[in-house]
Amino acid sequence: MRLTLQVWRQPGPASAGEFVRYDAPDITEHMSFLEMLDVVNDRLIREGKEPIAFDHDCREGICGACGMMINGVAHGPSKGTATCQLHMRSFSDGDEIWIEPWRATAFPVVRDLVVNRSALDRIIASGGFISAPTGAAQDGNAIPIAKQDADESMDAAACIGCGACVAACPNGSASLFTGAKITHLGLLPQGQPERYRRALKMVAQMDLEHFGSCTLFGECQEACPKDISIDVISRMNRDFLVAAVKEREERSVAGAG
Amino acid sequence: MRWVLTLYRSTIGKKVIMAVTGLIGVGFVLAHMVGNLQVFIGADKLNSYGAMLHGPLNELVWAQRVVLIGAVLLHVLMAWQLTRLSKAARPVAYGRKVPQVSTLASRTMRWGGVLLLVFIVLHILHFTAEKFDPAGWAGRLDAAGHRDTYGNIVASFHIWWVALFYIVAMAFLGLHLFHGAWSSVRTLGFAKPSPNPLHRQVALAVAVIVWLGFTLVPLGVVVGLVK
Ligand code: FES
């Protein structure tokens, strides 16, 4: 099929960017979206032009590296998939496709479609871990966990940190991302000792990174390639509220020391 | 009390303040709406209800006003701060952005909220202070010597732009509640995990009841049911 692309090109973080039009006459519906870009880049390179820069790694929807705004939708038209899992059969011959990087203050553009998502790493570093000293692995089923909790925790743990929630949110909020991590760890016994400190720290870091606030538009859960539910935001708020009101921080810091 | 500061400084805390003050507002509009519907019983009933609020229940009414004014001020202040933060979080707009699931209600919270604020001020000036007086009804008393709010309602809503303003404002109130009554509960973290978290039957019911309950009054005058 023959497509027309309007791709955001920006040579560097400080330079101005613009949409550039490309013809893609030789695309088959069997290609993935990233393979389609590879084909376009191939020709650009042969013509001696700069290829379009975009992030990718696993190309099977598990690493979270890929991600772009496709026709105004994060990760494109197919629900519950990352950009790398999007197939060109979702488009038709003659389509015009607009491709843009994630847009947020916290995600500065590095080049073309590549943005710097270190802000998400810093949120994780602020509390998205368990620091209990571990010995040998536990025996299987030594710590019983309710099925409901295990399910909810695992659903939240599916987050691959791609940043689509931030990109899709009209407020540029990272609530789904942060909530997913707080839910994932806060539901498991191993995550309990640091549960409230984690909520305080991660929310504080999220605010520091200049993400917007959540107004529950619901766009994030729709954009999420892992279908993470906005329920995780309620859980984050609840843990944060309890932590703030009880000033649990000191107590758990004292407990840990 | 350090927690108050922790809350105030965080975006979640600011949202919590908005949720709590918003829920206070929901409670108030429900009560206000029930009071209004006495218009359909008759002039005496409504005017003596007004006289009761301003007479024996005066202190109570004032206490409630203080709470409400505080709630509205906090609600507006937090909305303003959070809107600025959200705008700063995405200074460069998308060339293309297609909303997927967000409702019209959620997307009109800010401008609809501004309209509601203007409405609240005008509405208080209209029926409480009687300083905004499109029908020339300020100071009139009924046969029993009570303030003639009923007459003011009928005369005011016979003026097309007054009726239109009230009806449009109430449509926005309904939208505001459809999103707010649902999202405030989620913001406060009360929501149970749900297979379809965007579903909101209770908020829908609240929004429709409040919208209908308030719109019936100007509509009743316009169609001649209340005269
Ligand atoms: S490239 Fe790894 S998720 Fe798309």
What does this structure look like?
The complex is a heterodimer of chains A (257) and B (227). The model of chain A is unreliable at 252-257 (pLDDT under 50). Chain A has helices at 33-46, 118-125, 147-157, 164-168, 175-186, 195-208, 219-223, 231-246, 248-256; strands at 3-9, 18-24, 69-70, 73-74, 96-100, 109-111, 114-115. Chain A contains 9 helices and 7 strands; from the N terminus they run ββαβββββαααααααα. Chain A folds into 2 domains: 3-111, Ubiquitin-like (UB roll) (Roll); 117-256, Alpha-helical ferredoxin (Fumarate Reductase Iron-sulfur Protein, Chain B, domain 2), CATH 1.10.1060.10. Chain A is elongated, with a radius of gyration of 21 Å. In chain B, helix 2 crosses helix 4, helix 2 packs across helix 9 and helix 6 (109-128) crosses helix 8. Chain B has helices spanning 2-9, 11-36, 43-54, 58-89, 104-107, 109-128, 149-157, 160-187, 201-222. Chain B is built from 9 helices and no strands. Chain B has one domain (2-86, 104-222): 3 helical TM bundles of succinate and fumarate reductases (Up-down Bundle). Chain B is mostly helical and 227 residues long. Classes of the chains: A alpha+beta (257), B mainly alpha (227). Chains A and B meet through helix 6, helix 7 and helix 8 of A and helix 1, helix 2, helix 4 and helix 8 of B. The structure holds FE2/S2 (inorganic) cluster (FES). Residues 56-59, 61-66, 82-84, 160 of chain A line the site of FE2/S2 (inorganic) cluster.
